[in-house]
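Hi! If you just cloned this repository, the fastest way to understand the data is to look at a raw example. We've pasted two of them here, unedited. The first protein comes first, obviously.
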Amino acid sequence: MRGTRVFLFLLCLCGYLAAHDFVLGDRGLLSPSTQAAINSVASELLEKTKISAYVVIKDAIKDQMPSSKTDREQFVHQVLRDLPKPYFVLFFIKQDKKINFYVSNDIEGRVDLEGIYQKYMVPLLPLSQKEILDVSRISAIVLNGYVHYADALAKSYGKEVASTLIDRNGDLLAYFARLAMIGMIVVLVALFVYTRIRRKQ
């Protein structure tokens, strides 16, 4: 079954590449507006830098979840081997809760990928297992990381990608999410200290 799923994905991949669609995989996990924004940014980035920037999004890559590291590596290898270079790819696997970045060797090191992930994606991730990873949340996570990477990559070549339209509201959301995380940590530490003091009394 997994082999059939991967085969169908790769078959669709050929069609997406021919049509210059930069969102590959289970597109229903992203809102239509997010898909349109990614394609707009990717098209302009390709025109100005000759770099193809893709999002590969999957609910799962095998029926038995979560998938193993070997399964994911094989899947990534099968996808990357068919992409034109130079490329950047953001992989998002929902059921595995995995986000990974891959770039071709010729553009490696131009952008701080870990910095993009930590600053623009981590603050939007669910804080607990109870929070739902729905289309809206996934779209926000993926788009925020993607457009900031595209913007930074374009600037590393001395170019501007107007269609990135960096969402300052998204930045504010990420900022307040970071504050919320810090606040939760402070509250937990305060409760821990208070409990210890009460016990000693």
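Ok, and the second one:
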Amino acid sequence: MNLQNNLWNCHDNNENENKCCPKVVFAILPTDPTGPQGLTGETSPTGPQGGILNYADFYALMPDDNAATVAPGTDVSFPQDGANSGTSIARTGDSSFNISEIGTYQIYFNVPVTEAGQLQLTLNGTPLDYTVVGRATGTSDISGIFLIETTTINSILTVRNPAGNTTALTITPSAGGTNSVSAHLVITQIA
């Protein structure tokens, strides 16, 4: 066998013509050492803070905290303070809550009621129509979860039995047992 036969793979095709193809030879070479680390780049600007910025939970225990019915046009009381992250979300009374910072907030409320009815959020005394929730029958909770944006500092939030409704709402004093039932309003600043 000569050198040409070592570098070329020759074979015959059906027409007895001599066809040659180059052979591919691979060699594994040793790895070179790693070079020095490069310079550190410039620090990027800090991005916006994410997650939960502030939060507060307000609640009521029935029957004592909402002994009377909640008439149309009247706000639900949440006179007890739950967990909170500070003073940027605070109460101004049993049924009104100050949001001191401009931002986006997730609002959750849950109120057990006896009658069919509705509840909605108000911001600075203005009903937020997109927050009306209710139920037609049965004895269960009325609950809602919404995003609101405040555009002024010290905005006041309430949960209200909408004006124009005909039914005063009884906050359920006990449901399924002898223990007090709770109602909650949770305000969480997310932006």
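That's it. A detail worth noticing about the second one: Residues 1-8 have pLDDT under 50 and may be disordered.
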